[in-house]
């Protein structure tokens, strides 16, 4: 036998040139093949034929089916072969070594078993095998027509070829007891599968023991428990209101505000509607406020071909400003473009009275004609006495300006008013700004005080990295010294936090460590009200300004209510962020530059914008694990960071307006120096002109050589034109300075 192929010699009338081929010799078939040469059999012996026939997938090319005589002869010779095999085994065993004898005994036993098995398979002989059939007769004359299907079960005929089935699989069907090794071999795969299943179950239990959240059943149970806890908690809020004079009243209300934000974020509208009327009782229409804030229009799929922003930039580059006619046309185009684009609504919110109407008029005009800022503007006021209808109509003629009387809005009740039925304080309590933030139809809001002068386009604030990350952008207040009011607020806040801990931003601030007496400048604030956390913090901010809160919490320190906005975010555990750069001051200095302690009087707070520093701060926050901290690299990075921040810090806006206050004539502000990172302001001898405070000890920088003088000069020209255009209307409602005859 060579490989898987065995060729026999012709065997009488049974076959004519028999050829057997095996595509894969099984191990037991190879063992049986070893028996053949040891028995010295003739290649045409029937035993050899039986081995080939039953243990190898064979192809036989006969001319006819086997006859009865052939089968009888095969069976008898198989029996004789078994006897002869035993006899031959006994003869050869005596003269051979023990190893050869063992081999012969094994071969003899295998051959005898094979002969017995073949005899059993062939018996009984089918009746259609006639003894008179000649081996050389055709197949059709031997097998009757009715019996041919029986023969085809063993022999498949394809033309002149007949493929004999492989009967080696019949070995597994033998009757009789099986040995232990065969039984174990049969059960081996089942035992391995069972062991694998047990191992998988055990490993799963171990994993779920240390990480139970991986189980889907655990998640279902947690969700069910959360739903039950939320139902209990909403019922508790409806029946247990919180007041600010409770031991942990502010902290508890902040926790509820945070939960309210989570309900809004996860879309649990049913629970929101159950608690918001009890939680924010001062705002009966809080549901409408929430829907307006959180409903964002879908954005258009295709961008605008000729955007208004590109036309504005081209015109500003060409002439340096926009005319009144150009501004009106571009405002109309911008309104149509924003309606087509969709997305979040964006705009400016102002709180104006008759005394700040001139400053608001000049600020709006400068924004439109100098910086090309075409954002819509909403003006809020309280009663007609504060802003008469004539001034309201004047603002509406500017284009894309709306005015709202807070007293007639259906959003708020009398809890926010004082005993006289008015919203107190104007800029002392910032009450109107807090209500305007909730009532505004804008989602991305830029709060601007009427007396703010922008040196750059304020639309840049919406693309600031800090605003994109948190939905907030606060500016730091001037570093005033610590006073009793700031000490009271910090002490009260620490009592509220008690065993907890403040946010990292508050813990690292100089305000929390009593280093400075103010933290936030409310003149410019940027907020994204479409974020549930920001909306919840704004509701918390208004809650802290109610009549009872003013009496029980703020008390005689109502001036500290300017810190209530960031405090609402802090207590609600909502993320917020300040501009990285500390404010400076801008004003005039006419003294000697050689003086080691220059004194800058009548300073106006100058705010800087440093988006590069904000981007670096966010990068360190989210990618600190991937940054190297080597000594040489860190030294270079610190130096480069200060250099980059200095380049990125550009004067962005200052407070005080372009007009010098309390002047009988139209006098415009003309600074020549500015200071950065100003130390705490200290009150000294009053300046005779327009200031009750001075700044000394700061490093002064000349404005000459910067873009501030030229920008400010253009702003003054535009402000003067607006003053002359609407002077006839303004003079009936507020005292005005005498106009100058020519442009400044």
Describe the structure.
- A hairpin with a 2-residue loop joins strand 4 and strand 5.
- The N terminus is likely disordered.
- The protein has a 6-stranded mixed beta sheet with strand order 8-7-6-9-12-11, with helices on both faces.
- It is elongated and about 125 Å long.
- Among the domains are: 172 residues, no CATH class; 134 residues, no CATH class.
- It starts with a strand and ends in a 14-residue tail after the last helix.
- Helix 9 packs parallel to helix 11, helix 10 packs antiparallel against helix 11 and helix 15 crosses helix 27.
- The protein has 28 helices and 19 strands.
- The longest helix is centred in the N-terminal third of the chain and has 31 residues.
- The protein is of the alpha+beta class.
């Amino acid at each position: 036998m060579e490989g898987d192929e065995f060729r026999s010699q012709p065997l009488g009338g049974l076959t004519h040139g028999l050829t057997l081929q095996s595509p894969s010799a099984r191990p037991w078939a190879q063992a049986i093949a070893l028996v053949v040469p040891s028995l010295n059999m003739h290649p045409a012996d029937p035993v050899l034929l039986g081995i080939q026939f039953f243990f190898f997938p064979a192809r036989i090319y006969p001319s006819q089916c086997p006859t009865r005589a052939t089968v009888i002869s095969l069976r008898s010779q198989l029996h004789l072969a078994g006897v002869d095999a035993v006899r031959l085994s006994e003869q050869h065993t005596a003269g051979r070594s023990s190893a050869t004898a063992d081999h012969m005994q094994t071969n003899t036993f295998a051959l005898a078993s094979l002969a017995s098995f073949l005899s059993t398979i062939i018996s009984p002989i089918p009746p259609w095998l006639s003894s008179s059939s000649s081996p050389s007769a055709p197949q059709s004359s031997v097998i009757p027509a009715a019996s041919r299907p029986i023969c085809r079960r063993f022999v498949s005929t394809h033309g002149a070829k007949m493929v004999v089935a492989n009967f080696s699989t019949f070995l597994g069907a033998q009757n009789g007891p099986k040995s232990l090794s065969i039984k174990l071999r049969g059960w081996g795969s089942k035992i391995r599968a069972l062991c694998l299943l047990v191992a998988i179950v055990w490993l799963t239990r171990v994993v779920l023991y240390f990480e139970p959240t991986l189980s889907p059943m655990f998640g279902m149970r947690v969700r069910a428990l959360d739903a039950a806890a939320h139902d209990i908690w909403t019922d508790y809020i409806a029946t247990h209101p919180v007041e600010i004079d409770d031991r942990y009243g502010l902290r508890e209300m902040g926790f509820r505000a945070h939960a309210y934000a989570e309900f809004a974020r996860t879309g649990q509208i049913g629970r929101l509607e159950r608690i918001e009327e009890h939680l924010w009782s001062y705002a009966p229409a809080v549901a409408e406020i929430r829907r307006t804030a959180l409903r964002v229009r879908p954005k258009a799929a295709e961008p605008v071909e000729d955007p208004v922003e590109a036309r504005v930039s081209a015109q500003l580059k060409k002439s340096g400003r926009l005319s009144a006619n150009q501004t009106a046309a571009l405002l109309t185009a911008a309104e149509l473009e924003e309606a087509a684009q969709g997305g979040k609504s964006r705009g400016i919110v102002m709180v104006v009275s008759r005394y700040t109407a001139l400053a608001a008029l000049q600020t709006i005009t400068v924004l439109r004609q100098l910086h090309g800022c075409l954002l819509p503007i909403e003006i809020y006021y309280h009663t007609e006495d504060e802003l008469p209808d004539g001034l309201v109509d004047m603002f509406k003629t500017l284009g894309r300006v709306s005015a709202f009387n807070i007293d007639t809005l259906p959003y708020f009740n009398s809890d926010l008013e004082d005993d006289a039925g008015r919203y107190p304080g104007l800029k002392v309590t910032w009450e109107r700004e807090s209500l305007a933030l909730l009532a505004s139809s804008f989602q991305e809001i830029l709060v601007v005080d009427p007396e703010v002068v922008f040196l750059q386009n304020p639309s840049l604030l919406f693309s600031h990295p800090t605003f994109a990350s948190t939905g907030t952008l606060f500016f730091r207040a001037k570093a005033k010294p610590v006073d009793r009011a700031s000490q009271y607020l910090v002490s009260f806040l620490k009592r509220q936090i008690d065993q907890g801990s403040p946010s990292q931003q508050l813990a690292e601030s100089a305000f929390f460590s009593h280093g400075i007496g103010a933290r936030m400048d409310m003149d410019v604030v940027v907020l994204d009200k479409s974020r549930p956390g920001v909306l919840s913090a704004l509701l918390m901010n208004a809650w802290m300004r109610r009549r009872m809160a003013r009496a029980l919490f703020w008390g005689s320190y109502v001036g500290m209510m300017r810190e209530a906005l960031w405090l609402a975010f802090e207590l609600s555990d909502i993320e917020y962020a300040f501009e990285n750069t500390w404010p400076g001051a801008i004003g005039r200095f006419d003294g000697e530059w050689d003086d080691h302690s220059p004194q800058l009087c009548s300073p106006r707070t100058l705010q800087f914008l440093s988006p590069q520093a904000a981007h670096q701060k966010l990068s360190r926050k989210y990618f600190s694990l991937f940054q190297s901290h080597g000594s040489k690299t860190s030294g270079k990075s610190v130096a480069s960071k200060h250099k980059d921040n200095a380049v990125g810090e550009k004067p962005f806006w200052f407070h005080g307006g372009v007009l010098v206050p309390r002047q009988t004539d139209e006098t415009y502000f003309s600074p020549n120096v500015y200071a950065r990172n100003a130390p705490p302001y200290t009150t000294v001898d009053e300046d005779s002109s327009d200031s009750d405070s001075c700044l000394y000890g700061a490093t002064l920088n000349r404005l000459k050589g910067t873009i501030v003088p030229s920008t400010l000069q253009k702003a003054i020209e535009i402000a003067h034109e607006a003053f002359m255009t609407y002077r006839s209307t303004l003079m009936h409602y507020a005292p005005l300075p005498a106009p100058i005859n020519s442009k400044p």
